[in-house]
Amino acid sequence: MDKKDIPFLTASQLSKLIETKEVSPVEATEAYLDRIQEVDSKLNSYITINGEQALEAAHQAETQIAQGEYLGPLHGVPVAVKDQFNTAGILTTGGSSILQYNIPTDDATVITNLKKAGAVLLGKLNMSEFAMAEIYHHPYGTPRNPWDLSKNPGTSSSGSGAATAASLCATSLGEDTGGSIRGPANFSGLVGLRPSHGRVSRYGVLGGSWSMDTVGPISRSVEDAAITIQAIAGYDPKDAYTWDVPVPDYRKALTGDIKGIKLGVIQERMDSPNLDPEFRETVATAIGVLGELGASSEDVSIPLAPNAGALTMSILSVEWANLHRPVFEPHIDYMDYNNKIRFLTGCIIPAQTYYKAQKIRSVLRQQILDALEKVDVLVLPTGPVTAPPVESTPGIQSKEHALAGLAGRISFTGPFNLAGTPAISVPCGFSSDGMPMGLQIVGRPFAEETVLKVAHAYEQATDWHNRRAPI
Asked: Which domain does 376 fall in, by range?
C-alpha cells in the first residue's frame, strides 16, 4: 500500500492491516504526521502535535505485535484527542491562553485507557475555550471545516471534527456537554457518539458541567466509534459518577439486522420552525431507509424538547462559572468575548432559576424515558442546519441574539444530555451546497449497543460515509 493512502483508511480498516502486519504502526504514524504537516495549516485542527512521542509509541506497538502481544483493535492506530483531557508531560490548554503553559503530571483516565489499548497519540486537538459553545477568538487558530474552509467544523470539539474529517487522525475523542460531539459530527460528516452519563470516566477532564459532561468518540465510521468507545468505557474509582456495570462488546452489535426495531420520530423536532426544509426532507428519507431495513416507526411527542436549549444553558452556565471561577476571575481579560458574557451571566443567575431548570429537566428526562418504553430508539435531526460560516464578529450582541441561539442546535442535542441517555449522529446526506447533514439516534440509558446497531445498519445501506472531504 502507498504510504500516502494510509490516512484515508478508517480506523477499523487500518487496524486489520496492522494486526496482519501488512502495515506497521510506524508506517501509519509517519503517514499521519506527514499529512498533518501538509494539510493542518489550512484547518488549525491541532494545538499540539506529539510527533516524537507518537513515533516512540508506534515503535513500541510494532515490537509488541511482532512478539505476538496484540492488544486489540486500537493497537498501533494513530489517534488524537480534544485538548480538554490531561496528558502527562504534554501541554493541555483547554483551548485557552489562560492555560498556555499548563503541563499536567498525570493522564486523564481516558488517556490511560487509550494507552492500555495500544493506541498511538498523535496530539491534542483544538477546541472552543474551556469547551463552551461558540466563541469568537481561538488563541491557537480558528478551526476550519474541511468540506468548506469558510465554514465552522462544529463546537466545542472543533479540532476533533476537523482533524477526523480531513484524515489527520484515524479516530478521535471529543467531549459532549450540550452537543459538542454530535455537533461536529453533524457539521463535518462524521459519526459522533455521546455515551450514557457515567459510562466513561471524566477523571482528568477539564470539565464544564458535573451533571452533563461526557467523553466519547468522533470517528469516520460506526465501527470506528464502536472500537474507540470500547477502549475508554468502564467504571473508574477515580470518578464517583461512573457506573460499575458491564461494558458489552460493541462490535458484536454491528450485525446489520434491525428487523423489529421500533423507531420513535420526535415530532417537536421534525416539525420545528427552525429546521431547514432540506434537512427535514433528508432525515425523513433516512428514516425511510431504516424502514426498508425492517424497522418500524411511529411518531412520539417530547413536549419539553424545544426548551432543551434554555434548560441546558441555564444549568451549564451556573455549573461552568462556579467550577472555573478561581481561574477565570483573575484572568478575565484573557477570555473570549462570548465566554466573558457567559461567565458573568453564570455568576449572577439566581439560585431559584437553576433550581427550576433542574426540576423541569427531571420532567423532560421522564418524558424521554417514557417514550423509550414504547420504542427502542428515538430519531431526529442532529441539528436544524448545516455548518454555518466561521464567526468573524463576536456573537452575543443582544438578548434577542442569545435567545435565538437557544433555539438552534442545542435544542436538538440538548434533550439527551439533560436526560443522560446515549445519542449518536451518523451522516445521512449532503445539502445542495455540499455540506454534511446528520441523523441523530437516541437509546435507553446504557444501551449504546442499540444506537450503534441502528446507526451501523443505516450507514452500511447508504454511501454517505464513503465520501471524502475535498482537502
From this structure: 3-304+364-466
- In terms of C-beta density within 10 A (0-12 exposed, 13-18 middle, 19 or more buried), how is residue 70 classed? middle
Mean pLDDT of 251-280: 97
Residues 6+ apart with CB under 8 A from 284: 270
Q: Taking Cα atoms as reference points, which of 175, 74, 160 lies closest to residue 123?
A: 160
At 299, list the grid cell. Answer: 411518531
128 burial via Cβ count (<10 Å: 0-12, 13-18, 19+): buried
Contact 305, 268 (CB under 8 A): yes
In which band, very low, low, confident or very high, does the pLDDT at 391 lie, cut at 50, 70 and 90? confident
pTM over 0.90: yes
The Cα–Cα gap between 117 and 227 comes to 10
CA nearest to 440, candidates 418, 425, 460: 425
The letter for the amino acid at 306 is P
> What is the CATH number for 409?
3.90.1300.10
What whole-number distance in Å separates Cα of residue 4 and Cα of residue 26? 13
Give the whole-angstrom CA distance, residue 438 versus residue 238: 34
137: left (phi over 0), alpha (psi -120 to 50) or beta: beta
Q: Which of 291, 262, 295 lies closest to 374 in space, CA to CA?
A: 262
Alpha helices per DSSP H over 24-50? 25-43
Quote the cell numbers at residue 471: 482537502
Lookup result for grid cell 465566554: 339
CB 177, CB 208: distance < 8 Å: yes
The answer to whether residue 209 sits within a structural domain is yes
The total domain count for the chain is 1
Report the half-sphere exposure of 43 (CA within 13 A, side-chain side). 33
User: Which stretches within 167-276 are classed as H helix?
Assistant: 182-188, 222-232, 267-270
- Gap between the Cα atoms of 151 and 198, Å rounded: 33
Residues acting as catalytic residues: 82, 156, 180
Cα(first)–Cα(last) distance of the chain, in Å? Answer: 21
Q: How far apart are CA 195 and CA 442, in angstroms?
A: 10
Q: Is residue 327 part of a domain?
A: no
Helix (H, G, I), strand (E, B) or coil at 268: helix
108's grid cell: 486523564
**pLDDT, tens digit, 9 for 90 and up, residues 268-299:** 999 999 999 999 999 999 999 999 999 999 99
